[in-house]
Design brief:
The protein is α/β, with parallel strands linked by helices. The chain folds into 2 domains: 161 residues, Glutaconate Coenzyme A-transferase (3-Layer(aba) Sandwich), CATH 3.40.1080.10; 233 residues, Glutaconate Coenzyme A-transferase (3-Layer(aba) Sandwich). Helix content is 28%, strand content 20%. It is globular. Keywords: Hydrolase.
Amino acid sequence: MKRLSDALRPGARVFVPALTGESPLLLAELADDPERARDVHFIGVQFPGIGKADYLTLHPTVRQTAFFMSPSIRRGMSERRADLLGLDYPGIVRYLDGMEPVDLAYVQLSPPDAQGFCTPGLCSDFVPIVWKRAKRRVAHINPALPRTRGTFTVHVSELHDTIEAESALLAFAEATASDIEDRIGRHVASLIQDHDTLQFGIGSVPTALASALTGHRRLKLHTGMVSEAVRRLWEAGALDRDSRITTGVALGSPDFYRFVAENQRIWFTDAGRTHDVGAIGAIPRFVAINSAIEVDLFGQVNSERATGSIQAGAGGLPAFAQGALRSRGGRSLICMAATAKRGTVSRIVPALNDQGLCTLPRHLADVVVTEHGIAELRGLSLDARAQALIAIAAPEHRDALASAWNGMLRAF
């Protein structure tokens, strides 16, 4: 019987999609016959905690190029079988577009229409970047995958091989917002005006923010990923029904995927467009809403590394922050709980140290939000910026931060 994995060959460089583009059929085949993965080099933009693929465990000879840290990639790096590239989204696009063409690109597609065109359904972020130059193109045609609207379609004549099989789509349950996230969400909502264009991702803060924004009107979305929060805003009447919701990926429940398929305003495109700094900057009143691990008193943001351990990657944060600051009336918001580890660790710190990474430098600092308030940093002096951040730290950590800052001032 013909299989998707028949196209794999030892020594091949293979692009595999992630998130809702991940093919359950390919993963099942490889789990049943891991020898198919012998000496294969997989390349893909996988996200920690989302998706089921773990290519490095299939066979001891597998190699992988990755862009986000995960437990599997961490082990693979120690075994010299995984390469982690420290790139943000525009950097990943440049890398994929400029690298040697892959031997094989997999894609999961909706069934073709009457003219033979398939859509990538719920995920159009990175496949289009490698697709045209791939030496071989193989598709899992999944009848469960809805047809969607966007810039990337695939005609059946482009495919070297296909397997049609219905497989359950990747489902993702949003985190429930706590009281802390609800307070952050309300603070963020107070900064957003009707008619603003928003960017936010997944997680408990976007969940809380959606609830806080239901009274707004004519909001627009340009983002890398849409989730259940978007449906909540749509059903509340907060979104502009005449504007496109531009995204690269949809992630959520089966009910949410039905909403995405039925909503004519949701438009999928690749990461080269969703994260284009110039295009974002041309959107008036663009508000980028992102999270962080810690922020220091200079306004530097670390969203990648905690206590020396890399947790993720730069992702879309740098592009969205830069685009927001170029936008007329735009804002870049960094949102986080003020503490970690049950309140014992302040996430506002005196200065980033050798246990962190600087994802956003201080010259891109704009607004930081915690449950304790809002620090608007743009245009503030060095000292005023530090005082604004200390004021939104957890009260029990403010004295230590102030003391550390005074010592740093004397050293300046």
